[in-house]
């Protein structure tokens, strides 16, 4: 990922000013330079992958899971209501505040998606009775009836996209940049959107089919594919568990980078590695539906969508 030209110029101008004048002024200029640099980096990340940042609701997995549970249960007796739309509308109506969700309030909101129809019919004995049927209402009609503003409607639609199965994929034709801060973790021939089998964000878990947050990206490479160190760093952990299978965590400054579902590891804990070193081979170990590499990035202890670096 390359910084926008204006950000590069801004950083250059700030750096030039930093090394002129007396010591007192230099301290102030250093602080300003750091702040401007942080702003430039944030804007660069935002412009590099704006859709993912826009589409993720500010809700916990438990809160999103409650929407899924209540709406699915309510749908059994009526029609199949898209739980993603219900959760998205809540977020848009409440300024992304999910703290007040409970079963009763979710059910009351979900009822807006169901339209009831009554029809007088005669049975085989000639007796007349009322037949009740239900149909699913259109998303736009529901939002109109709830008197949502245009801004709320747009936010709701974006949030609904972010909640659909398999999270938010990169756009068609996307390809990882070779000039980014991180090297692509597998050979370049696997660096296009076609190889991203599951993106970063909310999805339906492929095993229990409930909503969960996918903290990395899955790259559908064949078993045994070379896995690279994406930055210079130190192997912080090599482990194996039921979820991630064989996995490695690489520490590089403020970054923690995890590679999971590996078939084999070529490094030991404590080893120093260079960007581009082959550190493992991809596999299908742990909780996996097929051969792939699960790739996660944390910065300062917080998960980040890895694709923002490419």
Sum up the structure in keywords.
310 residues, alpha+beta, Glucose Permease (Domain IIA), 3 domains, two-stranded antiparallel sheet
Mean pLDDT figure: 82
CATH superfamily of the largest domain: Glucose Permease (Domain IIA)
Q: How many strand units?
A: 14
CATH class of the largest domain: Mainly Beta
Quick one: overall form? globular
What's the SSE pattern?
A: HHHHHHEEHHEEEEEEEEEEEE
Low-confidence stretches: 1-15, 44-54
How many helices? The count is 8
First-last Cα distance = 5 Å
Which CATH-level-2 architecture of the largest domain? Answer: Distorted Sandwich
Range of strand content: 25-35%
Sheet with the most strands, sense and barrel status: 10 strands, antiparallel
Alpha-beta classification: alpha+beta
Percent range of helical residues: 25-40%
Q: How many discrete structural domains?
A: 3
- Rg result: 25 Å
CATH fold topology of the largest domain: Glucose Permease (Domain IIA)
Q: Kindly report the oligomeric state of this protein.
A: single chain
């Amino acid at each position: 990922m390359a910084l926008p030209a204006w950000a590069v110029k801004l950083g250059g101008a700030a750096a030039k000013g930093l090394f002129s004048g007396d010591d007192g002024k230099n301290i102030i200029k250093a602080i300003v330079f750091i702040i401007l640099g942080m702003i430039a980096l944030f804007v660069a990340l935002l412009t590099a992958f704006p859709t993912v940042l826009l589409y993720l609701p500010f809700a916990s997995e438990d809160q999103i899971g409650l929407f899924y549970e209540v709406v699915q249960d309510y749908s059994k007796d009526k029609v199949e209501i898209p739980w993603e739309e219900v959760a998205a509308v809540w977020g848009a109506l409440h300024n992304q505040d999910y703290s007040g969700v409970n079963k009763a309030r979710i059910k009351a909101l979900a009822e807006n998606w169901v339209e009831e129809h009554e029809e007088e019919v005669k049975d085989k004995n000639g007796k007349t009775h009322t037949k009740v049927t239900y149909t699913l209402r259109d998303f736009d009609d529901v939002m109109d009836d709830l008197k949502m503003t245009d801004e709320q409607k747009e936010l709701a639609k974006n949030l609904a996209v972010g909640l659909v199965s398999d999270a938010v994929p990169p756009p068609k034709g996307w390809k990882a940049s070779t000039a980014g801060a991180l090297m692509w973790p597998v050979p370049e021939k696997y660096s296009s959107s076609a190889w991203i089998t599951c993106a970063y964000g909310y999805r339906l878990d492929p095993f229990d089919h409930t909503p969960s947050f996918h903290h990395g990206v899955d790259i559908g490479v064949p078993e045994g594919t070379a896995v690279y160190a994406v930055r210079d760093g130190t192997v912080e952990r090599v482990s194996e568990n039921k979820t991630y299978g064989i996995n490695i965590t690489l520490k590089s400054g403020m970054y923690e980078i995890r590679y999971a579902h590996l078939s084999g590891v070529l490094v030991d804990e404590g080893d120093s590695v260079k960007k581009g070193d082959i550190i493992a081979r991809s596999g299908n170990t742990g909780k996996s539906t097929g051969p792939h590499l699960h790739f996660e990035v944390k910065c300062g202890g917080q998960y980040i969508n890895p694709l923002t670096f490419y």
